[in-house]
Amino acid sequence: MYSEKVMDHFTNPRNVGEIENASGVGTVGNAKCGDIMRIYLDINKDGIIQDVKFKTFGCGAAVATSSMATELVKGKNVQEALQITNKAVMDALDGLPAVKVHCSLLAEEAIHAALWDYATKNNIEIEGLEKPKSDISEGEEEEVY
Ligand code: FES
Questions:
Q1: Contacts (Cβ under 8 Å, ≥6 apart) of 118
Q2: Which of 28, 88, 100, 103 is the least buried, fewest Cβ under 10 Å from its Cβ?
Q3: Cα–Cα distance list, 54 to 98, 125, 126 (Å)
Q4: If you average pLDDT over every residue of the chain, what do you get?
């Protein structure tokens, strides 16, 4: 059912954790299942994502796509990171079962939410970035493991 790459990233997820004083943090929830993901970005003064971490309270596909998404954004600039779609993440994982495609959206949305947070904090505009719809604001978020 799952590709070897999905199983690899699920059983050995990369970049799990959090970044203190991150440049941008995005927390999103998946309306279909209630799962939650948070992504932390460390962006240097040149706009390069030099570190990224994630925490996911979600299914195996959500863990695997978050892990792969963090690998894909690391070292990219913010514009390049914005172009990384859930489809690109799924392709990098050699696909997901159809019923698990929605899980891959969490990673894309969490990256966008973290980029939005970064842009807001620094008072900059990232072309093509829209305000995240599903960002969970402080106060209503739940504990993420
Ligand atoms: Fe919720 Fe996969 S079932 S993210």
A1: 23, 24, 41, 43, 78
A2: 88
A3: 24, 24, 22
A4: 91
**Phi, psi dihedrals of residue 58, rounded to the nearest 5°:** -165, -170
The span from the CA of 86 to the CA of 4, in Å, is 18
ipTM: 0.96
Distance 30 CA to ligand 1 centre (A): 7
- Which residue has its alpha carbon closest to ligand 1 atom 4? 103
Q: Report whether 52 contacts 26 (CB < 8 A).
A: no
- pLDDT for 25-64, tens place per residue? 999 998 778 899 999 999 999 999 999 999 999 999 999 9
By most ligand atoms within 8 Å of CB, the mutation choice from 2, 35, 68, 144 for ligand 1 is 35
DSSP state of 108: H
